[in-house]
């Protein structure tokens, strides 16, 4: 029997979700960075800067960036980990990974890359000092499996960082909904000639677990000292947890 799941507001078979998510990111890859700046008025850079600061990467660290896409986090981590470090840029989507890998190479950063599913990571147990996933968990079919995999590959004492859209502060909900369901698809159409992918973005954010639920899921996956930071009134949140 095929299990069903959500793709935005639609209920679909699990395999169909994987294909639909792949279509979204094949479609947006070339315009992904410019759209991010447009959509968030540059705020995604602030959220990522906060994540990078919380990661506390030191020279020589081994770091895994999951669903790394066009490589914003991996780029910063690779600079901080230095030549003695090992920073992996990984993603399930070839189009996104290609853009990310080329961007890093153009900056003179030669990092290993791997086309892989967060739910089946091709890395040994207890290997990384830090694991990060930014705006990726929302798209995964079995978030519990992916979180368990992230914990598995962390060294004892290592830290997981999950940056994701979250539940916005209630008084901002109406204007945020108006922006998400009217302006976003319009921008998507104008800038990337793709309204549907940005409609999926708005819907998938609404279907994603809120701050407390994600915290409980991380604890369930065996992470300790789990906490979160609301960013821009909860438009996004950074969750962190330690493997003890
Ligand atoms: C919104 S992009 C985020 C890219 C980048 N981390 C950033 O913050 O700009 C989401 C990424 O998640 C990836 N993704 C979706 N499902 C995945 C999975 N199961 N395993 C790994 N990556 C996945 C997509 O291919 C896409 O590149």
What secondary-structure arrangement, pairings included, does this model have?
Layout: E1 4-7, E2 10-13, H1 14-28, H2 32-40, H3 43-55, E3 62-66, H4 72-81, E4 86-91, H5 94-106, E5 113-115, E6 128-134, H6 143-153, E7 154-165, H7 173-192, H8 195-207, H9 211-220, E8 224-231, E9 236-242
Parallel strand pairs: 3-4, 3-6, 4-5, 6-7
Antiparallel strand pairs: 1-2, 7-9, 8-9
Helix pairs in contact: 2-7, 7-8
The structure holds S-adenosylmethionine.
S-adenosylmethionine (SAM) is lined by residues 21, 25, 66-70, 72, 91-93, 96, 117-119, 134-136, 139-140.
Can you walk through the features of this model?
With about 240 residues, this protein is of the alpha/beta class. It has a single domain, classed as Rossmann fold (3-Layer(aba) Sandwich), CATH 3.40.50.150. The protein is about 45% helix and about 25% strand. The chain has a 7-stranded mixed beta sheet with strand order 5-4-3-6-7-9-8, sandwiched between helices. It has a two-stranded antiparallel sheet with strand order 1-2. Helix 2 runs antiparallel to helix 7 and helix 7 runs antiparallel to helix 8. The radius of gyration is 17 Å and the shape is globular. The chain starts with a strand and ends with a strand. The model has no long low-confidence stretch (mean pLDDT about 95). Bound molecules: S-adenosylmethionine. The site of S-adenosylmethionine has 20 residues, from helix 1.
- What's the CATH H-level homologous superfamily? Vaccinia Virus protein VP39
The radius of gyration is 17 Å
Order of helices and strands: EEHHHEHEHEEHEHHHEE
- In whole angstroms, the N-to-C terminal distance is 37 Å
Assigned CATH architecture: 3-Layer(aba) Sandwich
Please tally the β strands and state the result.
9
Q: Report the biggest beta sheet as strand number plus sense, adding barrel if it closes.
A: 7 strands, mixed
């Amino acid at each position: 029997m095929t299990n069903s799941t959500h793709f935005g507001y639609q209920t679909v078979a699990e395999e169909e979700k994987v294909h639909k998510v792949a279509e979204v990111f094949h479609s947006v890859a070339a315009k992904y960075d410019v759209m991010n700046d447009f959509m968030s008025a540059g705020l995604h850079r602030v959220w990522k800067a906060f994540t990078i600061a919380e990661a506390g990467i030191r020279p020589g660290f081994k770091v895994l960036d999951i669903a790394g896409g066009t490589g914003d986090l991996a780029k910063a981590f690779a600079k901080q980990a230095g030549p003695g470090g090992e920073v992996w840029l990984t993603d399930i989507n070839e189009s996104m990974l290609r853009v990310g890998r080329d961007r890093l190479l153009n900056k003179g950063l030669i990092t290993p890359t791997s086309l892989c599913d967060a739910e089946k990571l091709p890395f040994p147990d207890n290997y990384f000092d830090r694991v990060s996933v930014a705006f990726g968990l929302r798209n995964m079919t079995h978030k519990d499996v992916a979180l368990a995999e992230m914990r598995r590959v962390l060294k004892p004492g290592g830290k997981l960082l999950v940056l994701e859209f979250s539940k916005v502060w209630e008084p901002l909900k109406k204007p945020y909904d108006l922006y998400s369901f009217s302006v976003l698809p319009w921008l998507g159409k104008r800038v990337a000639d793709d309204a549907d992918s940005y409609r999926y973005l708005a819907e998938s954010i609404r279907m994603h677990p809120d701050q407390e639920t994600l915290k409980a899921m991380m604890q369930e996956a065996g992470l300790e000292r789990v906490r979160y930071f609301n960013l821009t009134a909860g438009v996004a949140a950074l969750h962190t947890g330690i493997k003890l």
